[in-house]
Design a protein that fits this description.
Blueprint (H helix, E strand, L loop, with lengths): L8 E5 L6 E6 L17 E7 L3 H10 L6 E7 L8 H13 L7 E6 L1 H13 L5 E6 L2 H7 L4 E6 L2 E8 L5 E4 L8 H18 L1 H15 L3 H21 L14 H11 L6 H18 L5 H13 L12 H8 L12 E6 L2 E5 L4 H10 L4
Parallel strand pairs: 2-9, 3-4, 3-5, 5-6
Antiparallel strand pairs: 1-2, 7-8, 10-11
């Protein structure tokens, strides 16, 4: 594939024998048979949701070769469906269709579909192939890459899951044309995250280009997606199962997951909660002496330009936050481990934040 700014582009997630490509570009779902190299056998099931299916299910079917046995499963939409009940519906469909170990699952949709299908693939007959075809910005730049799969539990987000890498990721940037503005902003939160944790130049580019991104400018979107995926692929190749540097991808997520779980999954979009969480992380970093007021102001201004929340839910008190945050997967030996910022573009995992400092942040952070 060529590598023009808004044309097709290919990256690789380098994991040895389990390495796989990420194809990024406009109109990729319109290319007949483009998914063929990633199929394990003749049995294919496309799993999508009620929102995405009318737009892209037919196109996805056309991206498969002739002669394969294609089944389809359309699930309800929304974060509230990301649970074992709906994963069981995937397993039921596979068993009823007689799918064997050489089948391939295709996840067509946003992060909820991708996470559930990946988890279903990881468990079905102890592991079968799957392909990610993300249709939201958040899924394209984050959840479709890296092999994190799973479902939510009422007490905590993504607490049940597995690491299971896809055979490939197909990102058709044209799918963003049907994405609601709120979902686009939620995806921008994850794009901003990459600049904050690892690439100050990219962060500065985002400060200039957020209006173009919100306006769906093709070249700006192509660059944002390519750079985000490149950074994610680089980090995953260094630390596939989050024993070290991969934890930095959770900037804002400890606060954000607390918001999602407390409010009820789906009340806040994941990216909205992460956006507020990143501002909380920036302000806590300033309280620890790492960022100055101008740094925090830059973070706040960028999140505001992306139309992301700058305040926490009004009904969440300090103890509500702390109770949820103590269930975070990064915690070790009952120590709260937070991803914070030594500088803009340089993140760290910190596990010695004084409780009084954290409580002070949570008490004073704006509520809406």
């Amino acid at each position: 594939m060529t590598q023009t700014p808004s044309g097709p582009h290919t990256l690789e997630v380098a994991l040895g024998s389990r390495s796989y490509p990420i194809h990024i570009g406009p109109g990729l779902l319109g290319e007949p048979g483009i998914l063929t190299p990633w199929l394990a056998g003749r049995q294919v099931m496309i799993i999508t949701n009620e929102t995405v299916a009318p737009f892209y299910l037919e196109r996805c079917r056309g991206a498969l070769p002739e002669g394969v046995e294609v089944h389809e499963l359309v699930l309800p939409d929304g974060e509230a469906t990301k649970n074992l009940e709906h994963v069981s519906r995937i397993w039921d469909a596979l068993l009823e269709a007689g799918f064997n170990r050489r089948c391939t699952l295709v996840a067509l949709g946003g992060g909820v579909i991708g996470d559930m299908v990946g988890f279903a693939a990881a468990c079905y007959q102890r592991g079968v192939a799957f392909i990610q075809v993300p249709t939201t910005l958040l899924a394209q730049v984050d959840s479709s890459v890296g092999g994190k799969t799973g479902v939510n539990h009422p007490l905590g987000k993504n607490m049940i899951g597995a690491f299971w890498q896809p055979r490939g990721v197909l990102i058709d940037t044209d799918t963003l044309e049907t994405l609601p503005p709120r979902e686009l902003s939620a995806g921008l939160a994850e794009v901003i995250k990459y600049g904050l944790i690892r690439d100050a130049d990219f962060l500065a580019w985002l400060e200039r280009e957020v209006p173009a991104l919100r306006g769906l400018d093709p070249e700006a979107l192509a660059h944002a997606i390519q750079r985000s995926c490149a950074l994610k692929a680089e980090i995953v190749a260094e630390d596939e199962t989050e024993q070290g540097v991969r934890a930095l991808l959770n900037l804002g997520h400890t606060f954000g997951h607390a918001i999602e779980a407390h409010q009820g999954y789906g009340a806040w979009l994941h990216g909205e909660a992460v956006g507020a969480g990143m501002l909380m992380a920036a302000e806590l970093s300033a309280r620890l002496g790492w960022l100055d007021a101008a740094d925090v102001a830059r973070v706040r201004a960028l999140l505001e330009a992306a139309a992301l929340p700058l305040a926490a839910p009004g009904d969440m008190g300090v103890d509500d936050f702390l109770a949820r945050m103590r269930l975070d997967k990064k915690n070790v030996d009952s120590r709260l481990r937070l991803v914070l910022l030594h500088a803009l573009g340089a993140a760290c995992v910190h596990d010695t934040t004084p409780e009084a400092t954290l409580r002070g942040l949570l008490e004073r952070f704006p509520r809406a």
